[in-house]
Design a protein that fits this description.
356 residues, alpha/beta, Aspartate Aminotransferase, domain 2, 2 domains, seven-stranded mixed sheet, globular
């Protein structure tokens, strides 16, 4: 594709021109005696997997499994250290320090703005419509787009509000922004919404990027395994700037287990039970004296407004229950976010909140 391409033309020119580092594992294939990567043949790791070898940069077996799970082609996928790394890579690929900007829709996930700050990219904000259940304001987003806005981050279901954005509005934005900006739809919590992924819209929308993760539905936050899904051309660019070996061998092993038939069934079951628990917890929260309002959730957490969030936080903290005070987020004064935990954990939280 040429630089006149509607997506590649938005990239930082030096990234477009970059000759990436070529790691030993990228250059080699097959062979019997590996003396190419300055590894140590004497490994202290007992048994399999052997940890003295550098891992495959993008492990083919895992990519194939993820492609099947997300229903996309293998060349649409990049595995990253959590989806947080996907956010960071996009910022570094598209935003020139001190010149370019991203657009976010607060209240939303904090890492978009943090990654922007690290890259010295400006942050343009177009708030979600609080009075309309935190829905998107597509007209305002389009009005806020200038040539310096290279990335639009939409989080659906949104953290911390828990709500799904309207699919048709997101798709219309993606189409309207072709040649102007990349639209990144962060679907970290999508499994809890039971709605189809925007990946179905990838074909024909080369400026659409989708972020997924094994941290939530699969219960694998500890392995740091995220997935960026985009056109093969864009995945190729991100592959140029990602660190040489982003998928450590133990991470690969755990992710492959998650992608087996048993792993997928276990994840589906855990999502179902967390959804049932979310419904139960929301119903109980709604009856508690200090709870003023609570928003419907398509995720594994609930956002609710209380009479005094500081009091709720100190009461819960006193018994070792840790909630998240979202009061400092745009428009969320006295709002608290509670992750849906195990039944006993949720009951412990509800019991304290009931007494505030
Ligand atoms: C909306 C959203 N996106 C991305 C992430 C980061 O997830 P990961 O663990 O894949 O880096 C989070 C983490 O809480 C999140 O809430």
């Amino acid at each position: 594709m040429s630089a006149a391409d509607p997506v590649l033309s938005l990239l930082r020119p030096e990234i477009l021109a970059l000759a990436p580092y070529s790691s030993a594992r990228k250059e080699s294939s097959g062979g019997r005696i590996w003396l190419d990567a300055n590894e140590n043949p004497l490994t202290p790791s007992a048994g399999k997997p052997l940890l003295n070898r550098y891992p495959e940069p993008q492990p083919a077996e895992l990519i194939a499994q993820l492609a099947a799970y997300y229903a996309v082609a293998e060349n649409n996928i990049l595995v990253t250290r959590g989806s947080d790394e996907g956010i960071d890579l996009l910022l570094r690929a598209f935003c020139r320090a001190g010149q370019d900007a991203i657009l976010i829709t607060p209240p939303t996930y904090g890492m978009y703005a943090v990654s922007a700050a690290i890259q010295i990219a400006r942050v343009v904000t177009v708030p979600l419509l609080a009075e309309k259940n935190f829905s998107l304001d597509p007209t305002a987003v389009l009005e806020a787009i200038t040539p310096s806005v290279k990335l639009v981050f939409l989080c659906s279901p949104n953290n911390p509000t828990g709500t799904l954005l309207a699919r048709d509005e997101v798709v219309r934005l993606v189409q309207a922004l072709l040649g102007k900006a990349i639209v990144v739809v962060d679907e970290a919590y999508l499994e809890f919404a039971g709605s189809p992924s925007l990946t179905q819209e990838l074909v024909g929308n080369p400026n659409l990027v989708i972020l997924r993760t094994l941290s939530k539905a699969f219960g694998l936050a500890g392995i740091r395994c995220g997935v960026t899904i985009a056109s093969p051309a864009l995945i190729g660019v991100l592959q140029k700037i990602i660190a040489p070996y982003p998928v450590p061998t133990p991470v690969l092993q755990a992710a492959l287990v998650a992608m087996t038939a048993e792993g997928l069934t276990a994840a589906r079951r855990s999502v179902q039970s967390l959804i049932a628990e979310r419904i139960r917890v929301a119903a109980r929260l709604a009856t508690l004296p200090c709870v003023r309002r609570l928003w419907p959730s398509d995720s594994n957490f609930i956002l609710f407004e209380v009479t005094d969030s500081a009091r709720v936080m100190s009461a819960t903290r006193a018994v070792g229950v840790v909630l998240r005070d979202r009061s400092r987020d745009y428009g969320l004064t006295n709002c608290v976010r509670m992750t849906i935990g195990a039944l006993e954990e949720n009951n412990a939280a509800l019991e304290v909140i009931a007494r505030v």
